[in-house]
């Protein structure tokens, strides 16, 4: 029988106020296998740990139970403490008599009884613990950043500056993300391109950064330190190595279509560079609209290209590369405003979104920076802004705040007044949220110096009357209906996760919340890590964010990546799943349930009645397994067990509870 110690912590008065710790220790002395038990004010403190180490030596302990706070808090403290005394760290169990007992109960007698039960269960479990040993895995010193918006660019530059090679990948033709579409940025009103372009160029010219645009991640295998990523490089139909970016092809291409970058307010050719500062500044052919690729006619671009760069035969390319760490920085997309039928969005040409207005205000936009209504090109005089369109609206399934809209609406009102001094802005709002450095001052200036009129209330209807738009709503401060005759309505469309964010999450094996935002490992303490080791988050893919927050998170993710890549080797999780092949029926349930894609079926041959039989069993990749335990719960044959949490151990705990 194992020799077990029990150490009961008071956690100051946190536990001791509701639990008689001395009594718990006293009762623990009678539990099977317990040869020593004591209580102490702070077990995690230096003297507390010394006391444990001395007891391990003096009583020749094989394992011990600490009855204290949550294992999330101090499990590693007590494991290290055991290691220092020469005990295998997995021979330690921490049972939680604080969050699960003292903090949720007021009655000391009952609290003490429950603590005794919890401790007895811990002792029963540790009696069945086996020493576990971590293995080490090598680290590929290269990172992949998915998404080259401002967050991805910043993360890539920081990782590259730390000395590690980075592949910065984006599915669009150029890097830049939404910031490339934005005209000026709050709260400083500096031109977005002026601060973004140098970053894009810096990334493109960095010796440690490889830019891969017009590409997507198709599959991810492997595990932290060694992710094998399959990347689809889509056919551009232009050999970027031969192309000099002269632009002759786009000039001569006869096919004009609406430009996605210009929010359909402008046009582009079938062979095009999405915007003048695009990086890489090489064209791509939009196969759907190209006359040659869709109808076999034309081919003008190929004829005029002086370097023979146009290549209609180009095909998508699949490459597999290994990376040690991955940063996901895939950003957001604008909420689909057509879901607000009452606003005429998608039906009335002059009801637009903030991103449309950004393009109308931009000097290199479709109107060369002149603000004109999409319907008739008239300069608007009365502009109504509506905030929280697709944000903080339970009915539309968007209960969250999009965080940047309050500020960008104040920015739009300010810039409009600068461009059109005779114009008047009306802003319908629920609240104004300006929690950022210099944000409140910026909002106050929009009202006081730029004549923005804020109206608290919601708009119920927008309709066309002649060439005007009638905006009908309610001023909830004055408690009366309000109607404004407007020339242009701008909806502050909220931020939505990318439509395919969930697919990417499944490919990467990371989790997402009910809306589709990728989830961090811990909202306060691990805000840039995912639950999958080696995969980090940056920017608005984790939740709505403005540029300063996206950049800050990107740099934080880069530090995490650099610290991971700086290691010679990584220690693999010791508490992983193990399949007992003798019991495995090869049903494959565990394969489909494992969120980390750590299990596969393999064929084994075995001797049966003098012959050989082949059958299928599960096999766990110890590097990929994160020890979540989902497979052991799903396994109908009890073949799958989590080391340190085996069915046998859990049943022993249940038995101990029933022995009360
Ligand atoms: C109208 C408007 C005005 C704004 N004005 C301001 C402002 O003035 N100041 C401010 O601080 N913030 C502003 N913002 C917010 C700002 O746009 C965001 O904070 C910023 O764009 C977030 O950067 P990001 O890199 O996280 O995401 P994004 O800019 O969305 O970039 C994400 C990138 O990832 C790529 N991507 C997506 N999915 C994949 C995939 N599966 N594979 C590969 N690549 C992928 C995209 O193509 C894109 O390039 C504004 C937002 C809007 C809508
Ligand atoms: S072949 Fe296609 S891309 Fe080239 S010029 Fe003709 S339509 Fe434009
Ligand atoms: S004409 Fe040829 S070299 Fe010039 S931009 Fe087009 S593809 Fe590149």
Automatic annotation (TrEMBL):
Pfam families linked to this entry: Fer4_7 (PF12838), NAD_binding_8 (PF13450)
Entry keyword Iron-sulfur: yes
Entry keywords, A to Z: 4Fe-4S, FAD, Flavoprotein, Iron, Iron-sulfur, Metal-binding, Oxidoreductase
Superkingdom field: Bacteria
Cofactor(s), by name: FAD
The keyword 4Fe-4S belongs to this UniProt entry's keyword annotation: yes
InterPro entries linked to this entry: 4Fe4S_Fe-S-bd, 4Fe4S_Fe_S_CS, FAD/NAD-bd_sf, HdrA-like
Gene3D superfamilies, A to Z: 3.30.70.20, FAD/NAD(P)-binding domain, NAD(P)-binding Rossmann-like Domain
Signal sequence annotation: none
Molecular function GO terms recorded: 4 iron, 4 sulfur cluster binding; metal ion binding; oxidoreductase activity
Occurrences of domain 4Fe-4S ferredoxin-type (ranges): 234-264, 281-315, 575-604, 616-645
Entries under PANTHER family matching the protein: COB--COM HETERODISULFIDE REDUCTASE IRON-SULFUR SUBUNIT A, FERREDOXIN:COB-COM HETERODISULFIDE REDUCTASE SUBUNIT A
Family membership noted in the UniProt record: Belongs to the HdrA family.
Identification of the protein by name: Heterodisulfide reductase, subunit a
Organism field: Heliobacterium modesticaldum (strain ATCC 51547 / Ice1)
């Amino acid at each position: 029988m194992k020799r077990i110690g029990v150490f009961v912590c008071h956690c100051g008065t946190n536990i001791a106020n509701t639990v008689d710790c001395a009594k718990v220790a006293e009762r623990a002395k009678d539990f099977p296998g317990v040869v020593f038990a004591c209580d102490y004010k702070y077990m995690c403190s230096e003297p507390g740990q010394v006391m444990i180490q001395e007891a391990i030596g003096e009583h020749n302990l094989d394992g011990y139970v600490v009855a204290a706070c949550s294992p999330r808090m101090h499990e590693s403290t007590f494991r290290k403490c055991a290691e220092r005394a020469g005990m295998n760290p997995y021979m330690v169990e921490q049972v939680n008599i604080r969050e699960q007992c003292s903090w949720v109960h007021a009655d000391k007698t009952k609290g003490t009884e429950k603590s005794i039960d919890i401790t007895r269960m811990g002792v029963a479990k540790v009696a069945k613990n086996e020493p576990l040993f971590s293995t080490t895995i090598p680290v590929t010193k290269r990172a992949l950043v998915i998404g080259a918006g401002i967050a991805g660019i910043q993360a890539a530059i920081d990782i590259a500056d730390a000395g590690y090679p980075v592949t910065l990948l984006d599915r669009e033709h150029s890097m830049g993300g939404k910031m490339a579409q934005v005209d000026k940025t709050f709260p400083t009103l500096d031109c977005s391109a002026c601060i973004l372009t140098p970053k894009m160029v810096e990334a493109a010219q960095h010796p440690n950064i490889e830019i891969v645009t017009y590409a997507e991640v198709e599959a991810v295998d492997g595990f932290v330190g060694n992710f094998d990523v399959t990347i689809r490089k889509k056919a551009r139909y232009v050999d970027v190595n031969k192309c000099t970016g002269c632009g002759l092809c786009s000039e001569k291409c006869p096919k004009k279509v609406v430009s996605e970058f210009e929010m359909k307010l402008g046009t582009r050719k079938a062979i095009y560079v999405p915007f003048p500062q695009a990086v890489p500044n090489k064209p791509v052919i939009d196969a759907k609209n190209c006359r040659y690729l869709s109808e076999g006619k034309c081919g003008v671009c190929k004829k005029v290209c002086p370097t023979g760069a146009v290549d209609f035969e180009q095909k998508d390319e699949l490459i597999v590369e290994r990376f040690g760490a991955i940063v996901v920085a895939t950003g957001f997309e604008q909420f689909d405003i057509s879901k607000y039928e009452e606003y005429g969005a998608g039906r009335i040409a002059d009801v637009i979104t903030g991103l449309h207005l950004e393009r109308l205000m931009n000097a290199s936009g479709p109107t060369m920076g002149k603000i004109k209504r999409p319907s008739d090109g008239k300069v608007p005089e009365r502009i109504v802004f509506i905030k929280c369109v697709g944000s903080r609206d339970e009915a539309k399934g968007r209960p969250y705040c999009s965080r940047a809209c309050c500020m960008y609406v104040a920015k739009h009102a300010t810039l409009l007044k600068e461009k059109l001094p005779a114009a008047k802005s009306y802003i319908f709002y629920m609240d104004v949220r300006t929690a950022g450095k210099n944000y409140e001052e910026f909002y106050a200036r929009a009202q006081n110096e730029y004549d923005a009129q804020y109206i608290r209330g919601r708009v119920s209807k927008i309709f066309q009357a002649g060439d005007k738009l009638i905006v009908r709503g309610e001023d909830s401060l004055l408690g009366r209906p309000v109607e404004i005759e407007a020339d242009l309505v701008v909806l502050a469309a909220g931020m939505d996760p990318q439509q395919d964010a969930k697919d990417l999450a499944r490919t990467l094996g990371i989790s997402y919340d009910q809306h589709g935002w990728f989830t961090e490992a811990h909202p306060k303490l691990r805000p840039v890590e995912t639950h999958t080791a080696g995969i980090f988050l940056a920017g608005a893919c984790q939740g709505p964010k403005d540029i300063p927050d996206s950049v800050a998170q990107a740099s934080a993710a880069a530090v995490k990546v650099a610290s991971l890549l700086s290691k010679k080797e990584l220690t693999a999780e010791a508490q992983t799943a193990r399949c007992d092949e003798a019991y495995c029926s090869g049903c494959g349930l565990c394969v489909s349930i494992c969120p980390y894609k750590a299990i596969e079926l393999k064929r084994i041959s075995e001797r049966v009645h003098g012959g050989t039989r082949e059958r299928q069993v599960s096999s766990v990749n110890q590097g990929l397994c994160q020890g979540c335990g989902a497979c052991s719960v799903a396994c109908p044959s009890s073949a799958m067990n989590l080391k340190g949490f085996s069915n046998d151990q859990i049943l022993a705990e249940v038995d101990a509870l029933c022995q009360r």
